[in-house]
Amino acid sequence: MRAMKQSTNFDYRFWGAHNVNNSIKAFPGDEFVKVNPISCEIFPRVVRFRGYWKAISERGVQAVVIHGAPNWPDTWLMAIAARLFGKRVAFWSHGWLKSERPIKRVIRNIYFGLANIVMVYGARSKRLAAISGFPEERVVPIFNSLDTAASETVYQNLAIEGAFSVRQRLGVPVDSVLLVCVARLTAACSFHLVIDALETIKITRGPVTFALIGDGPERGNLERIAKEQGHDVRFLGEMYDEATIGSWIYAADLCVSPGKIGLSAMHALAYGTPAITHDDYDCQMPEFEAIEEGVSGSFFERDSVESLSQCICNWLDRSADRQLVRDRCRSVIFDRYTPDRQLEMIDSALSAIIRDQS
Questions:
Q1: In angstroms, what CA-CA distances link 234 with 25, 179, 209, 214, 285?
Q2: Gap between the Cα atoms of 192 and 305, Å rounded
Q3: Can you give the pTM of this predicted structure?
Q4: Looking at per-residue confidence, does 14 or 27 come out higher?
Q5: Is the alpha carbon torsion for 185, 186, 190, 193 positive or negative?
Q6: What pLDDT shows up at residue 239?
Q7: N or C: which end of the chain has fewer CB within 10 A?
Q8: Torsion angle (degrees, nearest 10) of CA 182, 185, 171, 255
Q9: Cα–Cα distance between 258 and 42 in angstroms, integer?
Q10: Based on the number of CB atoms within 10 Å of its own CB, is 304 exposed (0-12), middle (13-18) or buried (19 or more)?
Q11: Are 357 and 15 in contact (CB under 8 A)?
């Protein structure tokens, strides 16, 4: 949002929820970014919004960008109303994540057809859209990003300190393999697979530490499993200080996310740490595309502890220069996954549909 406020092509204005729902913390704005409030209520099967009509009907607005979610009724209404008001509509969405059954595919295509363009998080979504019969030219990958300016400041300080010193500061044995992940601890993340894989890794590679940054409903169960198996698993809880989070990621050998991987991949690669996740792309988040086999990470057979263990050990057994690996991981981020690069793609997409309207 901060990058969008600095756009020289458009005057972006933001509307979003200020309230907290299901432990999801909303960004209410700050001195640089103003977020006009709308109401958001999260129910078990649906999300409802109120107070968005001013944003949709405001004069002088050429285009409206809507979070695209077919199962959210108000986004249908927003798109239809915006088109009736003569505005161009862009959906910002995961889009197509897997091949759908015929009925669901038709509904999804009708929904996204309400927009002039659909901005998605990955190239695979564009390919799946074309396979489903949706016009490929109306799908534009804009990828995703984190606050790379903040993480880069932390990274430069860590690079001066050095990984050896960072590990000592964190209390991690210098001879230990260090695995890390930043995520909410839910059943879908399957972190029990990593804990189950630690014994094999320990036998082949020696001491191993697994650091989990985050909290969630699975924490108690994971703590029990780790204690029963006698492994060094650090449950660090919720953490928002970038310098501390960055220290753990920078010092790690690998980021391991055995369930789906999303922004955790972005975070890991920004600090030069390769990411490992499963190979069932239909059950992945779009950010998995940043992982290039053998370059910025690796993939294992989904739900297989044996495959996960082997995948981690294979990577650790490589004799690749650590700094070279770090540089390759970071280049993936700075080539495509920064706020500035994302803004360029968003500006270009919106310019195209506004130009078509003219």
A1: 25, 10, 7, 11, 25
A2: 9
A3: 0.91
A4: 14
A5: positive
A6: 94
A7: C
A8: -40
A9: 27
A10: middle
A11: no
Instruction: For residue 89, list its beta bridge partners.
Output: 64
- Tokens, residue 63: 């285009």
Handedness of CA 56, 57, 58, 61 (dihedral sign): positive
Pairing mode, strands 117-120 and 47-50:
unpaired
Q: Which two tokens stand for residue 13?
A: 């204005």
DSSP per-residue string spanning 124-173: HHHHHHHHTT--GGGEEE------HHHHHHHHHHHHHH-HHHHHHHHT--
Average pLDDT over residues 155-172: 96
Q: What is the residue whose two structure tokens read 């019969």?
A: 133
The token duo for 240 is: 């928002």
DSSP for residue 29? B
Is 30's pLDDT higher than 70? yes
- Alpha carbons 74 and 61: distance in angstroms, whole number: 19
DSSP state of 290: G
The answer to whether 266 and 144 have CB atoms below 8 angstroms apart is: yes
